[in-house]
Write a structure and sequence with these properties.
Layout (H helix, E strand, L loop, with lengths): L30 H22 L5 H8 L3 H4 L1 H24 L2 H19 L4 H15 L3 H11 L5 H29 L2 H22 L18 H13 L2 H29 L7 H6 L4 H18 L1 H19 L4 H29 L4 H56 L3
Helix pairs in contact: 1-5, 1-8, 1-9, 4-6, 4-7, 4-16, 5-6, 5-9, 7-8, 7-15, 7-16, 8-9, 8-13, 8-15, 11-15, 11-16, 13-14, 13-15, 14-15, 14-16
Length: 422
């Protein structure tokens, strides 16, 4: 009698990874952690390349369109202003609908608008498209910060945020350098279009490779039935009643305002006597962003070890020292000062960004949005205001303006350190 065919027992499907409070955090050194940080690095690179690719082109806009330096700076200021306001809503939407989808949409839309702006036939239309790109970009920075705060072990949040900000630093450098180099051999339209194409590629990478959130829990403004606007107002009231968070928002405003004012107008200085540098040579100075790539994780790690207050004070003082060194009329000294200034700025931003995620116990997406709103409003207002100081007093005027911002930044950092804000 033939043996009955044997049937192998069914293979059980691997259990789905836990979601919610029981899900493990991403731990430094694991493959999953390295994968996530690499993807966020790519996302940050693309976002900030798109945002800042026009900055080294300001002197070209002045020459091509017969506009003033403050007028040329609108190509960046309208984008950062739109980004700042979009961040206020993006954080709230992501608190309800999730993180990953918002980030993918942000990268794809901003990339498409970058391609469109490269084809814009008029300066007015170019500014309109740059404004829309700013609105689209608002879906990434605050949401990425919230993703890190939720998915990574809190003990490593400072280091992880530093790695993400390192990607933003590389993107800021890459966007600036690439546009000048490509413009030098072709034209600015080709350069801006290529940056837009990079944004679309980054969207595809994030969509395919970034793991979904495991610790995310949808929120409804803190109360059932509360609409989006009501939830926003409730969360803003909660965060703005926290003096420590308000001081951190001020940190972003002051540091970013100082940073953008310097980089907006250092190109004008270097193309004028006594330096008289060609635009492609000026672009080489944007390589100082490499110092930001180094300092972001460095200061983030130091913040976890020594406390964010002390590290914030030290990095703020270093920014002021770098500004002072830039005052000497020598190219090597100016480059050293700009490098130190950049190194310290990304330290300030890394510490403050990581501190936001630890300080805000609820509505983290909106807390990050408020910080970045202040951060980019600093870019918008100080970046444009610096042009008037340049017009009236050249580099001395810009130095006095930025010096005032840095004095306020240092005093604010000392206040945070003294209050031992946690």
């Amino acid at each position: 009698m033939p043996n009955a065919p044997s049937s192998a027992p069914p293979v059980a499907a691997p259990p789905a990874p836990p979601i919610g409070k029981d899900a493990p955090y991403l731990e430094v050194g694991t493959p999953a952690y390295r994968r996530v940080t690499a993807i966020l690095f790519v996302a940050g690179f693309s976002t900030f390349a798109t945002l800042y690719c026009v900055q080294p082109l300001l002197p070209d806009f002045v020459r091509a369109y017969g506009i003033s330096p403050p007028g040329a700076s609108l190509s960046l200021s309208v984008t950062t202003a739109a980004l700042a306001f979009a961040l206020l809503v993006a954080g709230a939407i992501s608190d309800r609908s999730g993180r990953k989808g918002i980030m993918v949409a942000s990268l794809a839309l901003s990339g498409g608008l970058g391609l469109a702006s490269a084809l814009a036939p008029s300066w007015t239309l170019f500014l309109v498209l740059r404004t829309l790109a700013g609105l689209a970009l608002g879906g990434l920075p605050a949401v990425a910060m919230a993703y890190v705060a939720e998915e990574v072990n809190p003990k490593s949040a400072g280091l992880t945020m530093g790695l993400y900000i390192g990607g933003t630093a590389m993107g800021g450098m890459g966007g600036r350098v690439l546009t000048v180099l490509i413009t030098d051999v072709s034209n600015w339209r080709v350069a801006v279009g290529l940056v837009g194409a990079m944004g679309i590629a980054a969207a595809i990478i994030v969509a395919l490779a970034l793991p979904p959130s495991r610790h995310f829990r949808p929120r409804d403004g803190g109360q059932q039935g509360v609409g989006l606007l009501g939830g926003l107002i409730a969360a803003w009231r909660l965060h703005l009643s926290d003096g420590g968070l308000v001081a951190l928002f001020a940190t972003g405003f002051l540091a970013m305002g100082a940073f953008v004012a310097v980089f907006n107008y250092v190109g004008f200085r270097l193309q004028a006597p006594p330096f008289n540098l060609a635009p492609a040579t000026v672009a080489a100075l944007f390589l100082v962003y490499v110092f930001g790539i180094i300092s972001s994780p460095l200061f983030g790690g130091l913040s976890s070890r020594f406390g964010p207050g002390r590290v914030l004070v030290a990095s703020s003082l270093l920014m002021a020292l770098g500004l002072g060194v830039m005052g000497f009329p020598r190219l090597d000294t100016l480059a050293m000062g700009l490098g130190l200034f950049t190194f310290a700025f990304f330290g300030v931003h890394s510490v403050a960004s990581g501190w936001i995620g630890l300080r805000a116990r609820q509505h983290r997406g909106q807390a990050s949005s408020l910080y970045l709103f202040a951060y980019y409003m600093g870019s918008t207002l100080a970046g444009t205001a610096g042009g008037f100081f340049w017009h009236e007093g050249a580099w001395t005027g810009v130095t006095l303006f930025v010096g005032g911002l840095l004095v306020a930044l240092i005093l604010n950092a000392l206040g945070l350190a003294a209050r031992r804000v946690k």
